Amino acid sequence: MKPTIEQIRAQFPSLKSGFAFFENAGGSQVPQQVIDRVSAFFKDSYVQTSAGYAASDRADAVVAEAKAFANLLMNAGDTGKMIIGPSTTDLIYRLANAYGEILNEGDEIIISVANHESNIGPWVRLERFGVKIVWWGVDPASGDYSYDELERLVTDKTKVIAVSHTSNLLGDILEAKRVSQIARNAGARSVIDGVAFAPHQAIDVQVFGCDHYVISNYKVYAPHMAMLFGTNEAWAELTGPNHYFIEKDNLPWKFELGCQPYELLGGLLGFGEYLCFLEGAGKVRPDRETVEGAYGLIRSLEMQVQERLMGYLLSRDDLRIVGPRTGDESRHPTICFLKQGQNAIETVAKVNDGTVGIRYGHMYASRLCEALGAPVDSGFVRVSAVHYNTLEEADRLIAKLDQI
Q: Are 324 and 170 in contact (CB under 8 A)?
């Protein structure tokens, strides 16, 4: 039997305070299962791996199991390998630097203006090698983008297309499979930032057909780490930055600099246990059915809150909402807006009172703010919900928004 919202919230110690977290796109709360797993590693296995004694063997087992779960979470199967790192920004820098070694002067990289800077800056830096950056823009009023325009931007020099699956300002849902196919038709690699998508829907890189997919786990109910998928074919053409004595094809080690965050990998296993709890099938270890079933519940719960919030915001004719103007499944509950005649800083100050939390800013999507005509220093007001938010919390937030 699936758990109730009350049972779900009881898994998150931080929610007991009664504070309504509506800044989840900046980082979600973590369930007790994750906390327990991190703590257990510190208690029982906090040693270096591959040393050959009992505690080290336990650490080895945690790392191996966590990497297998990372593969399962993205449904990579045997199509590619997962690289673990401290953040999405760090991992994309490693990836872009590797592509910089094989790109030639005049080659082109298409970048969505709607991207988080983590999937922009590392690619823009390759201009110093003579690589040309081509921008896939957005409508300056709504933030909408055109796939026809993307296809027009592609040339025989296009080598990489870098996009966001969901913008952390717009809350949109990109057609990942379509973009991946556009890249493949051009002989280019697709790099998809799934950070703002992953808290809401199951990832399936085999369905998406992308060459690379990256997420930050701390925004997906897990510890502060990140993971980057790449297909076997995509990794094969790249040289990782790790030590000279590590062979080029030794993946993921060739791209994983220094020691792995072993205790955080333990926490990632706790997220797997939480998915088992959501699925309600009594499993101890998740399988793909568990992942998809748990995310089905996640999506159904957050849709209720999204519909309530979007219904209210759309009823206000003094608010400029960017991204899809709907509460249906064409978007995620990451919602940005501005009140006429009021900057985002002023709006947020009137809402955040110690019982509710939202935020303002460019959310590391400063180029998108500029494209939308919003001041970068104050940016937009952002409300971001996830499955543990309740209708009561949504109504509490709406009451605060009524005062702006």
A: yes
**Residue 73, token pair as written in the block:** 């979470």
Q: Give me Rg for the CA atoms of the chain.
A: 21
**Strand 20-21 to 356-357 pairing:** parallel
Q: How far is CA 73 from the centre of its chain?
A: 13
Quick: pLDDT tens for 192-236: 999 999 999 999 999 999 999 999 999 999 999 999 999 999 999
C-beta of residue 32 within 8 angstroms of C-beta of residue 12: yes
Going by C-alpha positions, the residue among 277, 276, 273 that lies closest to residue 4 is 277
Distances (CA, A) of 396 to 118, 171, 338, 350, 400: 33, 22, 19, 13, 7
Residue 248: which pLDDT band, with cuts at 50, 70 and 90? confident
Indicate the pLDDT class of residue 145, thresholds 50, 70 and 90: very high
Q: What is the pTM of this model?
A: 0.97
- Three-state SS letters, the chain: CCCCHHHHHCCCHHHHHCCEECEHHHCCCCCHHHHHHHHHHHHHCCCCCCCCCHHHHHHHHHHHHHHHHHHHHHCCCCCEEEEEECCHHHHHHHHHHHHHCCCCCCCEEEEECCCCHHHCHHHHHHHHHCCEEEEECCCCCCCCCCHHHHHHHCCCCEEEEEEECCCCCCCECCCHHHHHHHHHHCCCEEEEECCCCCCCCCCCHHHHCCCEEEEEHHHCCCCCCEEEEEEHHHHHCCCCCCCCCCCCCCCCHHHCCCCCCHHHHHHHHHHHHHHHHHHCCCCCCCCHHHHHHHHHHHHHHHHHHHHHHHHHHHHCCCEEEECCCCCCCCECCEEEEEECCCCHHHHHHHHCCCCEECEEECCCCHHHHHHCCCCCCCEEEEEECCCCCCHHHHHHHHHHHCCC
pLDDT for 176: 98
pLDDT higher than 90, residue 281: no
pLDDT tens figures, 22-64: 999 999 999 999 999 999 999 999 999 999 999 999 999 999 9
Per-residue CA distances from 175 to 1, 135, 156, 179, 181 (Å)? 32, 18, 22, 6, 10
- Read off the tokens for 118: 């983590």
pLDDT tens for 310-348 read 999 999 999 999 999 999 999 999 999 999 999 999 999
